[in-house]
Write a structure and sequence with these properties.
alpha/beta; 12 helices; TIM Barrel; eight-stranded parallel beta sheet; 43% helix
């Protein structure tokens, strides 16, 4: 190296060299990943990942085709311009033409949840609509959820809402079975621990009710996502996957959801377990990121809503905080329109995640 190289030149040289070395090692890792990993796990995404775009189903399908994914989960009913069967059949045919499998979904279907909305009528009416939409778009899955972590609080805790959700599910059992659609309850926004979701499915009947695995939401019920996968895999028919960063805070831990590969989830183990337990289940990315939430488990008043969380599982959750580190939240740029900034941020987070899944985890047919 030229000893007269100035500081700026030296820094430029070092950065360039590091980049070249990094690229070389990345190439080796990718080659190794594709030789030892099974790329047959279908890869897709949940439209909620890029919700700021405000697209409808046809636009999401066009985007999915451009990203060469296998599946797309339409996790809300607003994505459709009509519930007319002819229109929905057109969506189904377009997905088939593109080689993209469609899964259908909606929001909360528990009438006692604090988050329940009557936009689509009663809980039963809402669920019946979802099942019909799922059938018409060619989805064998109807993804929905109970509520949020707020439902863990108050008299009766989460159990009263589990009971009510099971009652609603049983009212539509025949309708779901006749339609050939399995209702896929998600562990959503800190509402259900994976073992509580197993309890709900078993009570309702696993012949017509299954699970939507959400690895990010797992960390909001003090779970290591690998445990969540192991518990829910026998019931799983859908998914919403993202990474999480967990780090120690003054009162416990903080959790921030991230793009894939940018948190502290053991994604190599997670993917290995996925291939072993549910290899045909699509890994559908639901990337939500940019903010942190604290779980103040060091405070006594934190624990009543979580009193039935297994100690062993909590210990494995805490192991994430030993691997994690504090990261900054998303900061809105000042020089562009806020909506445009959200759109660009969400697209970048999803597209980095898709690349990580394909190139590092070695999944996806495309």
């Amino acid at each position: 190296m030229n000893e007269k190289m100035n500081g700026k030149s030296r820094r430029s040289f070092c950065l360039k060299t590091a980049s070249m070395i990094g690229s070389a090692f990345t190439g080796c890792n990718l080659s190794m990943a594709k030789s030892i990993k099974n790329p047959e796990i279908p890869l897709g995404f949940d439209n909620f990942s890029i919700r700021a775009l405000g697209w409808k189903a046809p636009q999401f399908l066009t985007y999915a085709q451009s990203k060469k994914v296998d599946t797309v989960l339409f996790s809300d009913l607003d994505v459709y311009e009509s519930f007319d069967s002819n229109y929905l059949n057109e969506i189904k045919q377009e997905g088939k033409r593109m080689g993209i499998s469609i899964q259908a979904g909606t929001g909360g279907i528990c009438p006692t949840s604090k988050s329940f909305k009557s936009k689509y009528g009663s809980a039963e009416e809402h669920l019946r609509l979802l099942i019909r939409v799922a059938k018409d778009v060619g989805s064998s899955v109807a993804r929905c959820y109970l509520g949020t972590m707020k439902d863990r609080h108050g008299k009766g805790g989460i159990q009263q809402h589990i009971t009510k959700t099971v009652q609603v599910l049983k009212k539509v059992k025949k309708y779901a079975l006749d339609a050939g659609v399995k209702i896929a309850i998600e562990n959503h926004a800190g509402d259900l621990h994976s073992l509580e979701l197993v309890e709900l499915i078993e009570q309702a009947g696993k012949d017509y009710v299954g699970a939507t695995i959400d690895s990010g939401n797992a960390t909001w019920t003090l779970e290591n996502p690998v445990d969540t996968l192991r518990n829910l895999a026998p019931y799983a028919v859908s998914s919403g996957i993202r990474d999480s960063m967990v780090w120690k805070s003054e009162n416990g831990v903080k959790v921030q959801w991230t793009a894939m590969g940018e948190g502290c989830t053991d994604l190599n183990t997670f993917t290995s377990e996925w291939k072993k337990l549910c290899p045909s289940l699509p890994m559908q990315l639901e990337i939500i990121s940019g903010f942190a939430k604290e779980f103040a488990y060091l405070k006594d008043d934190f624990w009543p809503p979580y009193s039935n969380i297994p100690a062993s599982g909590f210990s494995r959750f805490l192991s994430l905080s030993r691997r994690g580190k504090k990261i900054a939240p998303f900061s809105m740029p000042q020089d562009i329109d806020p909506q445009k900034a959200r759109q660009e941020y969400q697209l970048a987070e999803l597209e980095r995640s898709l690349k990580y899944c394909k190139n590092v985890l070695g999944i996806g047919h495309a």
